[in-house]
Amino acid sequence: MDLGLKGRWALVCAASRGLGRGCAEALVSEGVNVVITARGESDLLSTAAALKGLNPAAEVKTVVGDIATEQGRADALAACPQVDILVNNAGGPPPGDFRDWDREQWLAALEANMLAPIALIKATVDGMAARGFGRVVNITSGAVKAPIDTLGLSNGARSGLTGFVAGVARQPRLAGANVTINNLLPGAFDTDRLRKNMAGAAARSGEPLGDLTAKRRAAIPAQRFGTAAEFGAICAMLCSAHAGYLTGQNILLDGGSYPGTF
Ligand code: NAP
């Protein structure tokens, strides 16, 4: 199926590795021009080269910066001729015990995982509505539906974003102008973040990393971790020209881990 996205411009935040990169790859493969961001320059440049290799006809721009800061967002927006598609993403907050978190750690989580995507939505959706097409995909977490106690900073900040999106996506001036806003909720995906979290858990528990990883995999009905490529494919589908009637939704990609009927 042609997703009807050729020639569109996407701003894909936090996209030098992992799920953000998977989204950029899928969009570029569909003929979308992208601006990708990350804080580290070298991974960002090698990802940009790989994206150009996937589709030499697509334009690929890079912006080095922290998307959780005003400057990082301003630079990212300035690099994108027009934002037709916005993929909101940033690194996740560290795990821990809420007793150890101070105000500064809470503010950092809120900045990265709630206020940054809200600021980018604010900066882009009215322009999308004026042009009659817009797609916003926020990468959140399965922890929004099934909280993980050690990820309290993530549970809290992302739930705030989810509540905001639930309201704004349903504004007739957006939904009625073919602007959709949806959240993609990853379960366990094989990325640097997952590997780092697993290594941390192994170090804390003393259990060998291989055993812990095998147990985690076996607990997923699909019996495996997801891949960034399959995450990106669902993101591209949500961004497609055909998905204009799908808005305000939380779409869980977790290999069947969430145990509820709905
Ligand atoms: P990852 O493999 O660690 O990749 C993170 C990417 O984001 C890198 O390109 C990183 O590059 C960039 N980045 C991080 N913070 C940034 C910032 N403040 N500004 C700009 N770029 C930034 O992580 P991932 O697994 O793809 O996870 C993506 C998101 O999904 C995270 O919020 C994570 O918590 C969430 N999530 C992931 C999983 C999973 O299983 N993987 C599950 C649930 C939720 P630089 O470091 O160079 O900036």
Automatic annotation (TrEMBL):
Task: Show the coiled coil region(s).
Answer: none
Entry-linked InterPro entries? NAD(P)-bd_dom_sf, SDR, SDR_fam
SUPFAM superfamilies registered for this protein in UniProt:
NAD(P)-binding Rossmann-fold domains
What highest taxon heads this organism's lineage? Bacteria
Which residues, if any, are the signal sequence?
A: none
The similarity comment for this entry is:
Belongs to the short-chain dehydrogenases/reductases (SDR) family.
Supply the name of the protein: SDR family oxidoreductase
Q: What is the lineage of its organism?
A: Bacteria, Pseudomonadati, Pseudomonadota, Betaproteobacteria, Burkholderiales
